[in-house]
Design brief:
There is one protein chain. The longest helix is centred in the last third of the chain and has 20 residues, at 163-182. The protein is built from four helices and ten strands. The chain starts with 5 loop residues before the first strand and ends with a helix. A ten-stranded antiparallel sheet has the order 2-3-4-5-1-6-10-9-8-7, covered by helices on one side. The chain has two domains: 6-10 and 103-182, TATA-Binding Protein, CATH 3.30.310; 20-96, 2-Layer Sandwich (TATA-Binding Protein). Strand 7 (126-127) and strand 8 form a beta hairpin. By secondary structure, the chain is of the alpha+beta class.
Length: 184
């Protein structure tokens, strides 16, 4: 326990941007394959990108939500592909869109077994109902992050917006778990 470390891997990045131009979604849906558009059910069009594998919600306002990528470089690549796709239906994007990361989801593990019953009593901001779900939900205030912790040491982290926040939240988690452990 003395030098526990955590390893993590980014599984999904959710990022948004605005193209600054209106997008004719019906025309896009009719012209481009790999799209889903049901305006009666949802106002956005889903554009699937094969490589890097991702999905982009395209709204008529020109706002985009990109999901499924595993790095900022991939997000940029996907947005570039969307811009090239829009050029095919005569929507020319002249300004470089500013990308904002909304959420990073990472999975990982900590090299220790966790007593979730004990942690649910010892830590603040936890939810644990083993009859409903085998993981403990632990919310960190600073940096803002939410962890799903499992007794085997596996974890999922969500809510961070960059690699530094992800790293800091993992370090804070280790510190908190060590403190809880020393209180036993």
């Amino acid at each position: 326990m003395a030098n526990s470390k955590v390893s993590s891997k980014i599984q999904n990045i959710v990022a948004t941007t605005s193209l600054g131009k209106d997008v004719p979604l019906t025309k896009l849906a009719k012209t481009i394959p790999n799209t889903e558009y049901n305006p009666e059910q949802f106002p956005g069009l889903v554009l699937r990108v094969k490589e890097p594998k991702s999905a982009v919600l395209v709204f008529s306002s020109g706002n985009l939500v990109c999901t499924g990528t595993k790095s900022i470089a991939q997000v940029k690549e996907v947005i570039e592909q969307v811009i090239k796709t829009l050029k095919k239906i005569n929507v020319k994007i002249t300004e470089k869109p500013k990308i904002t990361v909304q959420n990073i989801v990472a999975s990982g593990s900590i090299d220790m077994m966790l007593n979730l019953n004990y942690l649910s009593l010892e830590l603040e901001n936890t939810e644990y109902e083993p009859e409903q779900f085998p993981g403990l939900v632990y919310k960190l205030d600073e940096p803002p992050a939410t962890f799903l912790l499992f007794s085997n040491g596996k974890l999922v982290c969500t809510g961070t917006k960059n690699n530094q926040q992800l790293e800091d939240s993992m370090q804070q988690l280790i510190k908190t778990l060590k403190e809880a452990e020393s209180n036993k």
